[in-house]
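Data deposition worksheet. Section B asks for the primary sequence of the deposited chain exactly as it was used as input, without tags or linkers unless they were present during the calculation. Section C holds the resulting structure in token form. Section D is free text for depositor observations; keep each observation to a single sentence. Incomplete worksheets are returned to the depositor.
Section A, Depositor: J.P.
Section B:
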Amino acid sequence: MKNKTVKRRFLATVLTAALASTMLYGCGGEKAEDGQETSEDQTQEATSDESDGLALDSGKVELTIWAGDSYDDCLFDMVESFKQEYAGQADFEINIMESSDADTRNAVLNDIYNAGDIFSMPDDQLYSLIAGGGLSPVENQAAIKSANLAESVEAASYNGTLYAYPYSADNGYFLYYNKEYLTADDVKTMDGLLAAAEAAGKQVSMEFNSGWYLYSFFGNTGLEFGINDDSITNHCNWNSTEGSIKGVDIAEALLDITASPAFVAQPDGNFVEGIQSGDIIAGISGVWNASAVQEAWGDDYGAVKLPTYTCNGQQVQMASFTGYKMYGVNAYSKHLGWAHKLAEWLTNEQNQTLRFQARSTGPSNINAAASDEVAKAPAIAAIIDQSQYGVLQRVGNSYWNACTNFADIIAAGNPDNLDLQELMDTLVSGITASAVQ
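Section C:
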């Protein structure tokens, strides 16, 4: 059963004040501090067609999409179909710019007036973008909510208001494995997986020093971790000295795993290189590598939930962070009505299905996700199975560096022979720090 201690935490007083400002700007008609007009002031002559009260300009409409993982020919096709759908209603000039999803929050808030009209982002950036006044709430709230999976809607919402358009429900991780070397039984446990890989003279890959992946060893241990109500700091007792699984038990288990000659701690980007060279026969990663894995392994391509691992004599199911991708609409777009129309178009059932077919991206749209084609995709089936052991990523910034420092020491075999309780205390101290260390 998944650990329910990590919970979504809503932003407190400071965010509430920021949200009030966001709501005003999202409705248009307000002046920015630097004198720049918002979308309503800059609206050209509008047609009688409106998007839930937002005018749809009939003149030249220039829109820019900031796309990260979704930047490809598939997105260009979606834009062209949008132009065809609304041909004659406006003179569209829609530009697509490649921009990393991981950098969306900073890029938008650093220059909000010149940011993309629409931008792709992971769900964990939602609150910051709302607080910074960067998001215009979704126009067709009821329709978008009913069309998408409940947790994807929750991930894109604040206090019941939907602030972005979900388009994927697969931003998590699971285990890829090569059936030529590994059986279904081998991949059930980390012990079996590493033993089989050692026997074959091959390796198992994981980005071990990333807090996103490292969480998998802590999430189902009964120990607690989560973000506090201030939405800045974390609470954590991974150094606990009580209970059936203690902090040092996990540290010992991780030292055993990383000591295996079959285990390789490396960046996720190196995983594909390893499978192509033949050195890697299994790895913990996400759906973004599905096409490359399938191409490399062909009929031997397999994907399953994460294995269990041995900790203090027990088999503990590895956990995961789950996540969703979505498109946000810039509250300061000069053509706010059309920006919402385009964001809704890019995330509708038809285009989520197209995105799955082109990129093996797991849809958040209920109908698209329920298709037989999606059900037969190994990576999507694996992410769905793993999701029962996952939680939404909601963490304060101090978490990341603390995890990296801890994991680097473990992966190196604790070369300074640090006391394991001291090591766990240092990890928790870093995670719960009031600011990034």
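Section D:
The longest strand covers residues 60-67.
DSSP finds 19 helices and 20 strands in the chain.
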